[in-house]
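Researcher: I'd like a structural prediction for the single chain below. Treat it as a standalone chain; there are no partners to consider.
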Amino acid sequence: MQGVTDSPEVPRRERRLQESSEAQRVRMRRRLIQLGALVAVALVTTSLLRAFVIQTFSVPSESMEPTLIPGQVLVVGMQTKEDLARGDIVVFADVDGWLGEGDDFLVKRVIGLPGDTVKCCSTAGQLIVNGAAIEETYLADIAAPASSTEFEVVVPEGRIWVMGDNRALSADSRSHATVDQGAGDGTVAIDSVVGRVLLTVASPFSPVDRAQDAFRGVPPGTG
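Model: Treating it as a single chain, here is the predicted structure.
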């Protein structure tokens, strides 16, 4: 009776299986490394965008209707505060406690820049900036006066005067101004501005109207 001997094919098949298994492990490690690298790059990119380029915020109230709707997501350019213009919509930190709460942010429209004289109202019910009447076509109620509260303020250096587009429901610079224009003069420190609202996240993306035409005839402030 002849003994049974292993075929030479058996060790070769085992070696191929071992090599195949090892190759699979190597490929898996490479994929995991690549995936980890992609995740790391995505996290770093997101952090850089958040820290230096853009940030997103949600509209908290009706004060900027009809331009902005509550719950709408805003994309804010964080490097744009160095180049603010009248008509820009900005997000700023509530460092003066307008909301009376913690680390909150507000969104309003820039009406007056440093040195500007902002006054309400003309005989036609319009805001007057440096002597020029403003045609504010973006307001919630364009038939009503630009403000139910009369005021006149010279915007201090390093600060801006802001108002909501829905004037009847906006607690803005008017609500926080004082007679003597002291520390609570209603203006907002430019240093507290996060940036200018670039667009709203909708379908499709909707650029925000900077309303530059409304302020085109305003001369430079002399205050």
